[in-house]
Amino acid sequence: MKPAPFEYHAPTTIADAAGLLADLGDGAKVLAGGQSLIPMLALRLAVFDHLVDVGRIAELHGIERRGDALWVGAGTTEAAVGASVEVASSVPLLAKATPFVGHFQIRNRGTLGGSIAHADPAAEYPAVALALDASMDVVSSRGSRTIAARDFFDGLWSTSMETDELLAGVSFPIWGGRCGFAVEEFARRYGDFALAGVAVAIELDGDDRVRRSALGLIGMGSTPERAVTTEAQLAGQPVTEVDAEEVGRSAVAGLEAVPSDLHGSADYRRQLGAAMVARAWRTASAEARHG
Amino acid sequence: MTVPTAEGSTRYAGARINRVEDARLLSGRGTFVDDVSLPGMLHACFVRSPLPRATIRSIDTKAALAMPGVHAVFTAADLNPDVNEQWHTSVGPEGPETPRPPLAEGEVRFVGDAVALVVAESRYLAEDAVDLVEVDYDPLPAVVDYTTAEQAATLVHESHGSNLIGQMSGLPASALQEVFDSAAHVVGETIYQQAYVPVPMEGRALAVDYSAPTGELTIYSATQAPHEVRLFCSRLLGVPEQKVRVIARDTGGGFGQKIMVQRDEMCIMLAARKVPGPLKWIEDRRENLIAAGQSRHEHAAVKMAFDAEGTIQAAQIDFVSDCGAYPTPWPVSTSSVVGALFPGPYRVPRASFTTKTMYTNTVGRTAYRGPWQFETLAREMLLDIAARQMGIDPMELRRRNLLRRDELPYTNANGMPFDHISPMETFEQALDMLDYPAFRKEQAEARAAGRYLGVGISNYVEPSSPGFGYYATEAATIRVEPSGKVNVYIAGGSTGNSIETTVVQLAADALGVDIEDVATIQGDTAVTGFGAGAAGSRSASMTAGAIRETAAILRERIKAIAAHKLEAAPEDIELGNSRASVRGTPTIGMSLGELARAAYFDPYSLPPGVPAGLEASARYTADTRFVWVNATHLCTCEVDVATGAVKLLRFIVSEDCGPMINPNVVEGQIAGGVVQGIGGVLYEHLAYDEDGNPITTTFMDYLLPTATEVPVIEYGHIETPSPGPGGYKGVGEGGAIGAPPAVVNAVADALAPFGVTVTRLPLGPTQIHALIAGNRG
């Protein structure tokens, strides 16, 4: 379990990192916290000639309010996200998802950008980004662009970023008004990747009707999934008349690529997903109603 | 940190002494094999088969050998002809054995089978070179499912002529037919247990330093039995035993996996003489999970006959186990223990058993903490199923059948001679600790509220400290050094089981010295007498015997010298607090240092007939063939019926390992075993797909319980002395034997409202969910 040889690069600016990625081409991989990449290298499931370590780039760190969104630098550790008062008050869903990200030792090293760019469908941050319609700031030597979360995750461990692009930061829209947020997931052990989970956001109007809701499903497909049909059905419904179990069943109904392995069949995961959605819906709707 | 004795003095045995190993281990300063770094050291990595069964057509090592930093690439043709003899001491040279080529010869027999060995300047380079070794395989059909292996057309070992390795039996089933035919209740099930494994923190590891000029080999080994590594190596290479020195300072767990030398270690021993520097092999986690061995994979058809009151009339087990391609050791006789112990600590007048062991194209079976553990699992699961079917409380059913003290000694229906055990006492103590009636009330209230709690119990009796053959003796050398400090040399083989602490405690008591004055040297065959190592829950009783025998010689000598110097009679000399003093006049005495100085440096002042120096060696031969141990495990849980998740609430163990030498050590041993048992039921599964590919090759998929999955373990102790030294009994394996059925029965009890019968492990959330869904229709 030793990685194949690679050349190690440690740029200190985004521009230098982008330059390296442009020069090195397909043989290069961005190394952030290394919590997924290093084990994959050690098992030789992945082999790269060059690693571009972005851990020394100060511009990638930080949490700041930018208009109606909260910008989180891609290099910000998950532990820093979890400890941030700003995150807790502006994007509670992100704060609530953080304790589910591995163990604290992992969160001390792992980064928000690393998790989102790695795009594991069973990871929490990609589902939160998708649920909240976050936007990704992506930089290359060719320039910068912004990718909407719904266009970002395009397959298992795969994103719409080009190989010369670096994820610089993620902007999470701030939900105001009568909102509630909840994350529920089921893992074999505390800290394991979820067999099924969900990040739920709800906003109610003054009459307890659902103004909008967002359901980001974790571990239920080859990418994080958004239960858009369910969300559309819920819009305008009086929240007290919504059957949480029915929300759960509806949210998992259309899923086509639910994983299946030793730890759970697709059918089991679907039922788990429904149960997690129901639990999260109850918690989030109660929070939205009662604060 | 001492306990008072009847004579008013104090002793260390029985006290919660802090472990002497802890300072170095807890500060990260232990010396494991990978901590040994010698000048010019080379590193080994195996090329392993990716196929469960295939013919090896050719191996091309050219590209690997051409890589800078690579010293050698060995194949079977290079290493296997050097094998001189190849047998384990406990089995002997005559016993039947699986053909065991160090490197695969002509045919690979499981995914992970070692095909070639690369030696390079670093493990990194060695792994790079492994990727360059090209092996041309011709895939063959594989035997994956042990339950159909006997009928399979394909043979794992052509030379054996059958996939059935062997079988054993007790009384024929026909002898019990009448009892079963006429019984008021007959309860039968087929119980299945998945493969799960020891998972030591340190994998297997070996560093061999060969000196060409002298022909000597110094071997640093992660082992439970340093002397067995030495004997095995000496026979394997055909070198005299004195030329092999084995050193095992710290070993990061073994649990049975490191009792015997396996094929991979043989390769390192064989290769070490062919490379220009010391050779190190550190098994990584993936190798450990695919190649170090499997255990527990087995099933049995079991049945019991009861009379109308629930009294057991007869018990029968027909047991079959998966032994993989290269079991170590020959598994046939071990399997008979499952049959012989199936009746457990209960009054079972008639019993019969059959056992079968099967070859498959999977990793070979090795020992795992309580290798016969299935007898307890199957019996205790069946008793709960029986209780439910007969409408008797499961605790009451056991109470009616458990052996009582006044029935001992009791020879069970298969000839197992139980004595000095207390099954009823541990059972009642565990139930008291739980407050069983209170739990049933809580359970009923929870069910009314839609929550599902359960309680499960298991009772077992196990043989510890085998007193025969290779295991029958243990030696100690005790040296009171010229300063008066004491050093105890004992074979050791500690893999975390605190043998150093145990030895220091016992020696301090035996010589009447302060514990700070005692040290121990273990795990070095150059300075310790032969001992069979940490196996069979033998260390407590056997080291106690070795220290007792040796210390007796020294006590007599110390007393003789002191009596001579103090002008008193030897029988009036008392030893205590590192002093010898005259009984009734404690002010008249000499320190052990003063006595030692005289013994070493003033030999002419010693009384006639007393030899100079203060050192002695002796060997203890076991007083009994087995020391029986019993315990009760009791577990409560809550099952989330929406997800199938199990949360353990309480875990209680009442055990009788005789007088405790150190309760910390006893409880630590139990805790470790219990956690492994919990893992075996709820989390761990060494799984293969139907084509014979291992699918749990990292800790992403092979799930060990962690601190968040394990409840606080509560301990109760009953101390019934054994007839062995100090009355001590073995406690190393029991936790792993007792825990699994307690957990299974707790889950099954929680699911009772759904009409579920649990007969298969593991009980992961997906299996539990399916059980509930299946019974909901």
Count of helical stretches of chain B: 19
From the 3D structure, determine the CATH topology of the largest domain in chain B. Aldehyde Oxidoreductase, domain 4
Portion in strands of chain A: 25-35%
CATH architecture field of the largest domain in chain A:
2-Layer Sandwich
Name the helicity range of chain B.
25-40%
Question: Helix count of chain A?
Answer: 12
Major β-sheet profile of chain A: 5 strands, antiparallel
Instruction: Give the class-level CATH name of the largest domain in chain A.
Output: Alpha Beta
| Tally of domains of chain A | 3
Give the topology string of chain A: H per helix, E per strand: EHEHEEEHHHHHHEEHEEEEEEEHHH
The CATH homologous superfamily of the largest domain in chain B is termed: Aldehyde oxidase/xanthine dehydrogenase, molybdopterin binding domain
- CATH topology descriptor of the largest domain in chain A: Uridine Diphospho-n-acetylenolpyruvylglucosamine Reductase, domain 3
Radius of gyration of chain A: 19 Å
User: What is the strand tally of chain A?
Assistant: 14
